[in-house]
Amino acid sequence: SSLLTQLTNLDNKPIGFPVYISLKLSVISPVATWITSGAAVVLLIAAIIQSVRRFRRGKHER
User: Fold this and answer.
1) CA distance 48 to 42
2) Where are the domains of the chain?
3) What pLDDT digit, counting tens, does each position of 7-53 carry?
4) What is the rounded distance in angstroms from the CA atom of residue 32 to the CA atom of residue 43?
5) Radius of gyration of the chain measured on its C-alpha atoms
6) What sign for the dihedral angle of Cα 32, 34, 37, 42?
7) Which residues 6+ apart lie within 8 Å of 18 measured at CB?
8) Torsion sign (Cα): 39, 44, 50, 56
9) Which of 3, 11, 30, 53 is least crowded, fewest Cβ atoms below 10 Å from its Cβ?
10) pTM of the predicted protein model
């Protein structure tokens, strides 16, 4: 992929010639995506469990 760029002054008039800049795009591998998603799910479940435990503990102390 490439990006066409053009410098301009404050009046939006071009300075020099347009230039193509090559871009190297990388994609996250499916394995990394699955690992990250799995970790997010585990973290969410742990947060829910901790919240439920705090709620129950606070309820019994009253």
Assistant:
1) 10
2) 2-61
3) 999 999 999 999 999 988 788 888 999 999 999 999 999 999 999 99
4) 16
5) 26
6) negative
7) 4, 5, 6
8) negative
9) 11
10) 0.51
Query: Hey, what amino acid is at 20?
Result: Y
Upper half-sphere CA count for residue 16 (Cβ side, 13 Å): 7
* Structure tokens given for 42: 């585990």
What tokens were used for 32?
């990394």
Total count of residues recorded for the chain? 62
The answer to whether residues 15 and 9 touch, using CB atoms and an 8 Å cutoff, is yes
Element (H, E) at 45: helix 30-61
Q: How far apart are CA 2 and CA 24, in angstroms?
A: 8
